[in-house]
Every structure is written in C-alpha cells, then in structure tokens.
Design brief:
- The chain has 450 residues and is mainly β.
- It folds into 2 domains: 4-296, Glycosyl hydrolase domain, family 43 (Tachylectin-2, Chain A, 5 Propeller); 305-445, Exo-inulinase, domain 1 (Jelly Rolls), CATH 2.60.120.560.
- The protein has helices spanning 299-306, 335-338, 371-376; strands at residues 4-10, 13-20, 31-37, 44-50, 56-66, 71-80, 84-92, 100-101, 108-112, 115-124, 130-138, 143-149, 156-161, 169-181, 184-198, 209-217, 222-224, 230-231, 239-243, 253-257, 280-287, 290-296, 311-314, 319-323, 326-333, 341-346, 352-358, 363-369, 382-387, 394-401, 404-409, 414-419, 427-433, 438-445.
- The strands form 7 sheets. The protein has a 6-stranded antiparallel sheet with strand order 23-34-25-30-31-32. A 6-stranded antiparallel sheet has the order 24-33-26-27-28-29.
- The longest helix is centred in the last third of the chain and has 8 residues, at 299-306.
C-alpha cells in the first residue's frame, strides 16, 4: 500500500481508502483498498473498493459526504495506459462499501500526463451557501490547480498556485485546510499542504517529503503569507498526508503514508509492505512572529499516557528500559540542567536508532545506523535533524509500532517519522544525559496498555 485516499468520517465510521496492489507486494495494479475504524485505533480491512481495469489504474483522490441522502462521492485520478491522467468519480449509497463508476468518466480532463490527486473540500460563502473546491496538481509543473462546483459534476477553473521552491521535484497530493490560529475562530488561516518527490538524473538522496504554506483562500485563489515551503515532518518517512472529510467537531485529522519513494520498493515485506502513520489532529499556533502548523497525537495515545504513572529518574547513571516493540515513551526534562540528552534504541537486529539533543545547537538528531539498516538501501542509514530549544523545558513523545517510529516534540510543535529495523523482539532503550539531572519518564506497553 501507499498513499491514503478518500479519507472520510461517515455514519460513525472513519473510512480510509488507500493506494493498493491487490496482487502483490510491489507497486502496480493500483486500486483503492479500504479499511474502517470506530476510534482511529483498531481497524477492519474490507474488500478492494475501486479496482484497476484494463488500460486504467486508480490513483489517489478523495471522498466527500453530500446531499440529503448523505451519499458518498469519490474523486480519483484515472491513470490511462496512454500516459494520460484525468479525474473521475464514483458514488456509494451504502456507506462506502460498494461503488458505482460515473459513466461519463473522466469528468475533468486537461489532456496532460501529470494531472492528478484531486482533493475536494467545502467553501462557505459570506451568505452561508456552500461551494465545492477541487484541488489537483500538475505534478511536473509544480502547480496546484483550483476548480469550483455547486453540484460535484460541472467544474470551473479558478486559479493556480506555484511553482515554488526547487525544480528538481514533482508536487503531489495537495490539501487545503482552514484552521483557527491559537484556537481563535476569528483568526482563521488556510494551510496548503503538498508532497514533493525528487526527480531527474541526480535526485536528492533524502527522497520524498511533505511541506506546507500558510495563507488565505478567498474562494478563488490562495495567497501565501510567505513564498517559502515549510517542512511538515522532519523525518524521512511521511508522505501523501491528507485530512478526513466531515470529521467530528470540524477537526482536521491527517493520515500519512510512512515510507519514502527512495527505498519503498525494497523495504522488507512481512508479508505486507507499506503502512500509515498515526492520525494527527492539526492546529495553528503563533510563535516568534510566525504561524506554525502543530500536529497533535491521537486521543488514544494521550489517554494511554494519562492513565500511566510517570517516573522521575536521576540520571547519575544510565536509565535502561525494556520495550516490547509496540510502546510509548514520554520524556520531560530541562536541558539547562541536564545538558545533552541521548536515547539509544537497540533490538535483536544489527541496527540502532539514536536520538541526541544538544542544547548548544538547539537541535535534536535522530540517526539510523547498523548493518541491517545499510542492507536495505545505501540511503537508508541517515540522520534527521529537527529544531528543539536548549533553553527551555523539553518534551519528547515517542511512539514505536514495529518498524514505525514517530516523535512528537513539545506538544506537537514538530514531528519526526522514520522507519526503523530493530527486529521483532524486545527493544532496549538506554537514556543518559551529559550532566546529572532529572528526567520524567512515562513508558506504556501498547499491547497491554500498561
């Protein structure tokens, strides 16, 4: 599996569709797989929702709930064998389990080869009426195109945003999200998110990643506060993230694919290949004259931590924890007292993960190393860096779910998502600091909740 598609909350269920090869562990035969959850924690997989056809693969897209009968409408990219991409639709009247293709497909066609990844959102006019806005990319041109509709069928071109940034990437999987700044409903800004993947003869070895830009959308065009893309996740393995339609309370809940196109084709299958990130609730926070995207861990994570007792450790000696490979670790410390902090993860495999915060550099570095890591791909051993102040108390929430390592820093001000290969047995976590100090540690075994 790869990109999340058609994220929607409908009749009490969270639906995730996703790019899926129903016939193998490699990319191909692209279709929409399907899974549902009542709580974003435990998931049930269902039969393939939209299957590829002869001459046409089903690429990424979105789903919206609309109309008096609460019908679901899917928008997806038809990728034809003649190297032509256009947007098609399907509808479901049984809650998203079976789909009927529109006989008039494709419904939006520019006659180009990299027009893809439609995301449909609602836009409220000043008089309260609703229009539908469709975003899609011309991937090679690094442009997001905006279209408008009142009936989800006839689409009128509005405007485009881009190109921006380096020309050695393609743009994919856009989303446009209104968020209240610091929780103030009178200060709403729009966040345009997109995924970038290196192309060309000498692609960036860091591979694919996600970025965002904050600005305003007036129903016709997007105007950015600054003409600079900001990294959305500082790890190597977070891509194609989009938000759910119709989430309760109007929350913006994002799900991303945890992998990197540089080595996605060789990452071990067990027997599956490809997985989703934790769902993340998005918000905007103002700090130091900027408006920044914040990503909060899901409720089931915070509930597990709240139910567990933190332990205060004196780091005169190293603190050693044994984790089962599906665990949460929450660290809180004051870098002005402890100096540098290091957390090392080691398992049965010849691979290591080291997290090191150096207050003088205001940086947390996450390094993957070892023979098992090097065996996957030459670019898999790597170091990811993320800003983390050394002058104020710090918090690091670590989620380890088999090969999926996700970090949330200072209540979601920054995130780091990396694949790891620590083996399938228990993991030893070793914590030490430069100077003797106090570190509050909460560890939760997610397999038992203890």
């Amino acid at each position: 599996m790869n990109d999340p598609n058609g994220l929607v909350h409908h009749r009490g269920l969270w639906h995730v569709y996703f790019q899926y090869n129903p016939e193998g562990a490699d990319w191909g035969n692209m279709s929409w797989g399907h899974a549902t959850s009542a709580d974003l924690h435990e998931w049930t997989e269902h039969p393939v929702a939209l299957r590829y056809r002869e001459g046409e693969q089903i690429y990424s897209g979105s789903v919206v709930a609309s109309g008096a009968d609460d019908q679901l409408t899917a928008f997806y990219t038809s990728a034809y064998d003649d190297n032509h991409q256009a947007q098609s639709t399907a509808t479901s009247s049984d809650g998203g389990f079976t789909w009927q293709l529109d006989p008039d497909n494709p419904v939006l066609d520019r006659g180009t080869s990299s027009f893809r990844d439609p995301k449909v959102i609602r836009f409220s006019e000043a008089d309260g009426t609703i229009r539908w806005i469709l975003l899609a990319v011309e991937a090679d041109e690094r442009r997001v195109l905006f279209y408008s509709s009142t009936d989800l069928r006839a689409w009128t071109y509005l405007s485009a945003y881009g190109p921006l940034g380096t020309d050695s990437v393609v743009w994919e999987c856009p989303d446009l999200i209104p968020l209240a700044v610091d929780g103030d409903p009178d200060r709403v800004q729009w966040v345009l998110t997109l995924s970038t993947n290196p192309v060309g003869a000498d692609p960036d070895p860091d591979g694919s990643s996600m970025s965002y830009v904050v600005g305003q959308f007036d129903g016709t065009g997007f105007t950015a506060d600054t003409h600079q893309l900001t990294r959305l996740d500082h790890g190597r393995d977070f891509y194609a993230g989009v938000t759910f339609d119709s989430a309760p309370r109007g929350d913006a809940i994002m799900l991303g694919w945890m992998n990197n196109w540089t080595y996605a084709h060789v990452f071990p299958s067990t027997p599956w290949r490809g997985a989703m990130s934790l769902p993340r609730r998005l918000s905007l926070r103002s700090a130091e004259g900027e408006t920044r995207l914040v990503q909060h861990p899901p409720a089931f994570i915070t509930e597990q931590l709240s139910a567990s007792t933190p332990h205060r450790h004196d780091t005169a000696e190293a603190v050693v924890l044994t984790l089962n490979g599906h665990a949460l670790v929450d660290l809180r410390w004051d870098p002005t007292q402890t100096g540098s902090l290091r957390l090392r993860l080691a398992g049965a495999a010849d691979a290591r993960v080291e997290l090191e915060h150096t207050p003088a550099s205001n940086t947390l570095r996450i390094t993957r190393s070892g023979g098992a890591a090097a065996a996957i791909h030459p670019y898999f051993p790597s170091t990811s860096a993320v800003p983390l102040s050394g002058a104020t108390p710090a918090r690091l929430l670590l989620s380890l779910d088999g090969p999926l390592l996700e970090l949330f820093l200072n209540d979601g001000e920054a995130t780091v998502s990396n694949l790891v290969v620590l083996g399938t047995q228990s993991i030893t976590a070793t914590l030490d600091t430069e100077h003797r100090g106090q570190v509050d540690v909460t560890a939760v075994d997610m397999s038992t909740g203890a």
